Amino acid sequence: MVILKQVRLVNWYAFNHNTFPIGRFTLIMGRNGSGKSVILDAIRYGAFGDTAFNKSTDTQGKRTLSTYTRGFMDATSNTYMRPADKYPALTTHIALEYYDDSAMVPFILGTLIETDSKNTVKTWRYVLEGKTMQDVSHTIKENGTERPKTREELKKEWKVRFMGNAEGLEAFMQMTGLNMTKLQVQTFLKKIRGILTYNPKSRIEQFIKESVLEPREIRFDPLVQSMERIDRLNGELSQIEREIGDLEAVTDASAAFEKSEAIVRRDDIMNAYKDYHNLDDEITGLAKKQSQISQQVRELKGKLEKKTEEEREVERKIRQLNLSLDNMDCMEPIRMEQEHLEKLQDEASALKREKERLERAQTVVSEAMAVLQDAGIRLTDADVLASLSLKRYTETEKRQAVETMQEQLTAYADSVAGKILAASAAMEENAKKVDEAASIIRDCDRKQGGFSQIPRAYIALRDEINAEYKKRGIHAEAKFAYEYVQGLTDETWRPALETFLGARRYTILTDSDGYDVAFSVFIRSANRSAHLFNTKLLMQEKFTEIPQAASSLLQVQNPVAKKYFAYFLGRMKALPTQEVKKERNAISKEGCVSVSMDTYFLPLEKTRGFLLGQAATELTKEKMQKELTARMQERDKLAGEKRALEEKRDTARRYAKMDTSVQFDAAFQYQETVIKIRESMQAVEQLKYAQKHNQDFTRMEQERDRLDHEIVRLRDEKQQIYAQITDAEAKIAVIGTKAEEKQEQLERAEDRVSAYEMAFDTEAVRISDEYDAAVEAGRKPSELVLGKAAREEAVTEMTESEERVKQSQYNYNANWGMENQLPVGLDKCPQYLERKEKIWMGDLQDVKAKIAQQKEKYESDFRTEFVLRIYTACVDAMREITRMNHKLAKLNFKEKYQFEILLRNDGTDFAKIIRYAQYMTDRTESKMLDPGYTEEDVEEMEREIKAIIRNMVENGKEETIAQFSDYRNYMSYDILINNAVFKNARLSKQTSYESGAEVQIPYMLILLSALLITYDAREGCAKLVFIDEPFAKMDPGNVKLMLDFMKSHGLQMIFCAPDKVELIGNECEVVLPVLKVRADVMKVGSIKFHEFAV
Question: Residue 354 pLDDT > 80, yes or no?
Answer without folding.
Answer: no
